[in-house]
Amino acid sequence: MVKTNPGRFFEDYHVGQVIAHAVPRTLSGGERALYHALYPARHAVCSSDAFAQSCGLPGAPMDDLIAFHTVFGKTVPDISLNAIANLGYAEGRWHRPVWPGDTLRSESEVIGLKENSNGKSGVVWVRTRGLNQRGELVMDYVRWVMVRKRDATAPAPETVVPALADSVAPRDLVLPEGLDFTRYDFTLAGEPHRWGDYAVGEVIDHVDRVTVEEAEHMLATRLWQNTSKVHFDATLREDGRRLIYGGHVISLARTLSFNGLANAQMIVGLNAGAHANPCFAGDTVAAWSEVLDKAETAAPGVGALRLRLVAVKPGAVPGALRGEDGKYLGDVLLDLDYWALTPM
Prior knowledge:
By secondary structure, the protein is an alpha+beta fold. It has eight helices and twelve strands.
C-alpha cells in the first residue's frame, strides 16, 4: 500500500465533491507576533487590546488575514498541491473574529471544473469554509486554481463554470458583535481620515515599498502550512525560482496600505482578487488603492469602504492597471477588491 500522498490532479475532482481538510490549527499570540514581524501590520484594532476594547470588542482579534492564511493553508494539500497557479478569489466574507486560542479547520466543495485547451491542466473552482472549535463559520470564500493533470490523455470532465457575484453586497457584510467606533481615537490609530473623507474614484499612492526576501517568504509559507510545491521546490520550474505565495503579497500590500488607510481597520468582505503576475524573491513591492464604493452600516460610527488594493513593482503609475488590450500591465502583481470597516 502506498503511504505517501502525491496530491490530487485535475481528473481527481468532480463537481459536488466535499473535502474535509486536515489538520486543525490552534492559533495563539505567537502567530500574531510572527505576522506582525513578517509584514509588519499596524492597524490598531488588531494590535492593541485596549484600543479594541474602546471599540466595543473584548480584546484585539487576530488580524483578519491570519484567519485567511490559516484557512487557506489547510486546503493546499487537497486543492493546490499540484497547482500551476492560484488564479482568483470571489464571494469572501469574514463571519466572526478569530481570537487567540481559537482552533480553525477548513472544508471545501468543488463547484466548477474546466479543462484547459492544452489538455495538460484544468481550472478547479472551490468554495472553502473556515470553522472554529465550536463549528461556527469564521469565513468563507471561492477561489479557483489551475491544476496539472496526471494523464494528459484522460477525458475532460463536463465543463461547469460557476456564476459568481461581482461583489459582496453591503447588506451581506457581517460586522463583529459589539463593534462601536463612536469613541474612536484617531491619534492612537495613526491618521485622522474618516469614512466621509474618502471619495469614490479616489486613488491613494501608499508611497512605501518592501523588497521580498527568500527567507521571509519561506517562513511565511511554512507558518501558514502551505505545502504547494511551487513555493518550496526550486526544481519544479524551468527557471529554478520558487514562486512567492500569493497570500504573502496580499499581506505585504495590506500592510503598505496603512499609509493612507490606517483607519480601514477590519476586512469583512473579499469581492475579487487576481494574482496578475508572478512575484519572486528580490522583487520590490509597492502598492496603491482605489476607493470603489462606500456604504453605511448598522454598527454605531462604523462605515464600510470598498477598496481596490493593487500591489505593483516600483515605477508603476498609481491607478494604472491594464493595457489597451485589457490585460494586466506587466508590473502589476496583485489586484484585490475588498470591504473594510472604517470610522464615520
